[in-house]
Amino acid sequence: MPVRTHHIFGRPHEGALDEAAVRDLLADAQRHRARVAALPFDHVVTVLGRVRAAFAPGGPLHTELLDRLPGEIGFSREMCALELGGLHMALSEPFLEGKARAEWGRADAVDAWHRRPGSPLLQRAVPRGVVLHVASGNVSTTGVLSVIEGLLARNVNVLKAASAATTLPLRFAEALAEADPDGGLSDALAVLVWSGEREPLHRPFLDTADAIVVWGGDEVVATYRQGLGPQGRLIAYGPKVSAALYGAEALTDEALAASAAAAARDVALWDQNACSSAQAIYLEDPTGTRAEPFAAALASALDALADTLPMGALDLHEKAEITKERELAVAREVLGQGRLYVPSRPGRLQAWTLMLDREPAFGLSPLCRTIAVKPVRDLAEGVAALVPWRAYLQTCGLAVAPARLGPLSDALIAAGAHRVTRVGEMSNGAPGEPHDGVFGLGELVRWASLDAPDAAERFDGAGLVGAAEAASRSWARRRRLVEGLLPLAPRWRERLAGVRLRSEADWLALPLMDRADLTAGTPPASHALLTCGEGPPDGGHWLRTGGSSGDPRLSIYGFGDYEADMVRAARGAWAAGIRPGERVANLFFTGDLYGSFLSVNRALELIGANAFSLTQTAPVESVLTCLRSFGIETVVGLSTNVQNVLAHVAEAPAGIRVRRVYYAGEPFHEAERHRLRETLGVERIASIGYGGVDAGPMGFACPACQGNEHHVHDDHVHVEILDPETGRPCAPGERGEVVITSLNRRVMPLLRYRVGDLARWLPAPCPCGLASPRLELLGRVEDLVRLGERRVDYAAIQAVAAALPAIASNPQLVLADGEALTVRVEAVDPAADVAGLAGAVQAELRARVAGLGAGPLVVEVVALGGLERVGRTGKVIRVLDRRSKP
Length: 886
Fold this sequence. Notes:
Number of strands: 37
Shape: elongated
Radius of gyration: 34 Å
């Protein structure tokens, strides 16, 4: 028995296999399955991205394979280059994520419980376990592509390589081991080589494997179907045939050259060895005048491809089959039933074979670019000719006018076809496209559901994830972000070149982003922070911040990015208490590229609430009429606007009952909460979530959260609280600057972005039982004001204002030359004694706020709504710095 090379769970293995060795291998596979199943989706994508880099065109591995594969699998060097290009694309992050999202509904379906649209239950995809992949020898990447799907689904995969095509799968396994030094993913792959005809080593898999994926002929499929145990699932991709159909409108003189070129490509790719390769072409030729011009044009196109994409070397059997087919075609030509076209150039005599055959019945081709062109009166006759092959029919290329596309596609699907595609694209595919009538990635998982009282009370399954697992996923996502996505943006391409994150120390060494970076790296200034190149993304939302902390900054969200944000926004609204069917008045700001109203409405839609789109600009009278007429008991909006509306409700409460108030932007302080409870009977006042236009949703308030406390959306952002002076991570309870990294944004991801907030970590666990970390917001970075040698904290001044029921809780600081400070506040009562109130506030400030005991201080009292605000949002401008610039 010949000595063979295998690659078993990250290590090479020499020697022939026997049944005992296979059973030992399967026992190892069972031991690996739990570890492999726990790998985050992002870790898998990151490692496969490293493998992709190893297969990069022009690299040493790519060059080696181009030298070896033609002699091993029979394709030309040019065809092998195309095959390797397809593998390189299939390992790309967009392809992998797009495939998972299309086939599972979401890319992280194997990571966590989630709600699928239309289902009341939590669901998740679960790896099958141990999967055997049986590769065919006609296209060398088939087995490797099958294994990539198995890895993406977190199975332990064993690939039986085709005996004559071992180089590529073995090199793939070696590249995987090199790309995965920790061994988590390379422990999920073994590549074995044995002869299926002489060595029946498949038997242990029949008893043990959880699934067997077979690529091959009917006999091979039957071998693995017979004796398969009850635990195993057979996923069979057996032999298939394909055909192309051209309507008369595609055969005009003007269209002929393009139609022939497309047909030639469908015949030439993989030398017709792919299941999707056309073996017959049906031409709609009712006048009998278009078949020969098309055949001549197709012959010319095939001749051209013989130079640019030459066919591989033919063996004696293939040459004999082609010769036999040509002789039959000559006989038909003598009988007036067709015509034979063959190359005439020396050295190219068997580069292709074209037979114009007036018999419509479909027949198998000997392949190797041997194609039958069959004229029919109409395409219905061509469709009928394919019906007897319905058990094997896979792809139909179709070239017809738009008005005929639907009816003919339906007819072909009814005839048994699984795919209808454009001519010239028959052997191409798209992420998430079904193969042979099934979603291959979907076949490699099983689906589980969860229906329990606690689960039913959750918006999604995020809260079911433990702290250790959440941290593992966040780390995997950050590594994927740094290695795979951020280098697509010009700003990060050089800074992160070759960076691999091995520890948190590596992470802390990465640079921070600030607001100036955001302004300089986004349109119209530049596209430096965008991963889509110099042009705009393929659709998305362009939004700007409100401008309360400087000039408005642009953020661009792809539609997928935005929807990921909205899921977290809905989670925040759900945690606050909003439920399906609830009537909610949305008083957030809209327009001028501001996104709060848009986002809240989408969150309410995801929950299933009834959204009343009033906006902040609606006249108060209109808002009151709406609350009264429709019995709306829930109001959401910026806190200042909500308080203004509720003040009018207090003056005319007849017919209005506001029970729940949810806010964002500025907090409700305890004095304000008490006033609303006492005057209006408001039962619930809570934050609808912590977030911003530039960073998206960052946190949510559970029922146990008080004041400015929020849980972090740790499946969406990575939050750090850093010492503003040293940049070191703050310990729980220490005040520091909030820095976030977006984990799900693709078009404009943020890496360690300084959002401008101050916060401190709260001790765990939260009384609500959620494992996600909690923070308490402590104001804005710019709220720490320097006046000469004095340092004044806006948050301390705000705390004083919040404790005084006679004034609103959001004061305004006005800075002037000479260390002068003016504190402006709004009186709640229009009839208040302004002078007396100013004196009382000043006394409280000097007594309770560090830095205000000495030095110039003026307190100015204005009417409610009298402070300067940001016109786009209505937020109070906290600090007005009117000092002379140096």
